[in-house]
Amino acid sequence: MGRPYITKVLPMNLLYLLKHSDLFPAVVGMSSENFNKLLPLFDKRYRQSQYHKLWRWDRERLLFILFYYKAYPTFRLAQIIFEVDKETIHRWKVFLEEVFWLTLGYELNLPKRKIRTMAGMLEICPDLSEFIIDATERSVQRPKKNQEFYYSGKKKKHTIKNQIIVHPHTKRILAVSQTVEGKRHDKQLCRDDGTVLRAEPGATCLADLGYVGLQELSSQLKVILPIKKTYKKELPEMDKLTNQTISLIRVRVEHVIGALKHFDILADRYRGRLPSADLPFRNIAAIYNFTRPITKDSC
């Protein structure tokens, strides 16, 4: 990794922000209490890096990467805010988001693809036997290469997609997939990711109609899907009530996705190179879990 050139205090008015703690969620995406809890964890990982002597002000480092994720300014705008050239802004972003992942991705054990079975997830919450699965798309700038590959005919734009697995009661994120092209079918992404297909026998998966046929991929998994209306035929009232019940539970994963997209880097069109789009999603998923600590009562 190139030298990040982190050599000065950020000119953003941090003192004003510290005096007005109610502004923290709007500026960095979390409360001041969570910011202060995260700070020593982040600082520990930063000081283990080879560039730890280049920037000695703890809060400014963490503030920068959180502000970048929350507001997602262009490098030109960030250049004005932080009074450095855009090349330096880019170096800060690349360096600090990797430090951020080392902080939350490992310290908090956010499950990743290296967990090979659902039993690995059960170590976090031993009574877990059910989960909700969904996928979310983000728009991206038209890539210079592989334009057709990333173009979604359904969305009429270029998109990328991630799958998330959520606990239905705690609403914590249990796993995230790698970032793929947005037009990939949800069921195909589920198959390619493989996490759900390694679920323990009897585990229950709640999903939408994008996952029709998932049961055929794993006989040991109980898949609950909404009842699909047949052509020119209304559903019976009992089936409508069933769908309403499923929807009331499944909407919890939509709430999680909505919380992730409070960060503009996930809500706005992604402007970076596509290979770099995966880490922001994982970091923000880690932020989401960090701000919702698990307890024995929540399992």
UniProtKB/TrEMBL annotation:
Keywords: Metal-binding. InterPro entries: HARBI1_dom. It comes from the Bacteria. Its cofactor is a divalent metal cation. Pfam families: DDE_Tnp_4. Residues 133-275 form the DDE Tnp4 domain. The keyword Metal-binding applies. GO terms for molecular function: metal ion binding. This is DDE Tnp4 domain-containing protein. It comes from Candidatus Collierbacteria bacterium CG1_02_44_10.
